[in-house]
Design brief:
two-stranded antiparallel sheet, binds zinc ion, mainly alpha
């Protein structure tokens, strides 16, 4: 799952209007932000096995620290608590924590049975939606479009950056998804891991665009007086 995780962040703005889209995306993609560095350090492992699922050739051999159910809950609670101690914004803390765990749930739907419930447990789970391309692409695309619609109707651009940085963020994300669907299997796991590191740039991009937008109605529509992203 790729743009489905972005959808959770975009839609999460409704539950936590005062939280930056960058923070929400950091939560929704945290497991995938953690995973490339862990593989490059040799702590987690995957390989390229063309055909292992219809949509992706990645064989996730071992990734219990970034992608087990137990650890996703641990990361979610930890990040939620850190956020709350810094911002004192309960709705945001809860939404960010839910976003972190949602990543595991969405991966569970899409991956073949390669996800562990906890480090050390042999059971592997995954519903394998990646073996049903039409359903997989359809569901993810609908989620993404609905979430973009939700974010766009909830916020408005303060200036040109708020308009164009956000539009660029959405377009590049969608384009990457389409390119990835049509790309040949990557040459090595290292290429995948290093390009995965680039996901951090999307978090910064989302935070930057969000800072130039404001919630257009409701309780959070009052001007934000704190400095920095929330
Ligand atoms: Zn993942």
């Amino acid at each position: 799952m790729f743009i489905g995780h972005f959808a959770v962040a975009l839609a999460g703005k409704r539950a936590a209007p005062k939280t930056s889209l960058g923070t929400l995306l950091f939560g929704a993609q945290f497991l995938d932000l953690l995973w490339p560095p862990l593989t490059l350090l040799g702590i987690e492992r995957f390989s390229i096995v063309p055909g292992i699922t219809v949509l992706t050739p990645l064989d996730f051999e071992s990734y219990p620290i970034s992608h087990s159910l137990l650890m996703s809950v641990v990361w979610g609670v930890l990040i939620g608590v850190i956020y709350f101690t810094r911002r004192r914004y309960r709705a945001g803390a809860i939404m960010v924590a839910i976003a972190v765990v949602s990543h595991w749930v969405l991966d569970w739907v899409t991956h073949r049975p390669d996800l562990q419930l906890a480090p050390g447990l042999d059971t592997r789970v995954g519903l394998g939606l990646w073996n049903h391309p039409a359903a997989s692409i359809g569901i993810e695309t609908v989620m993404f479009l609905l979430a973009v619609g939700s974010y766009v109707t909830q916020t408005r651009a303060r200036d040109a950056i708020g308009r164009f940085a956000f539009a660029g963020f959405i377009l590049v994300t969608a384009l990457l998804y389409v390119m990835e669907l049509n790309a040949p299997p990557p040459p090595s796991w290292r290429v995948v891991a290093w390009s995965g590191v680039a996901l951090w740039l999307f978090v910064l991009w989302a935070a930057w665009a969000d800072r130039h937008r404001e919630v257009s109605h409701g309780e959070a529509a009052r001007p934000v007086t704190t400095v920095g992203t929330q």
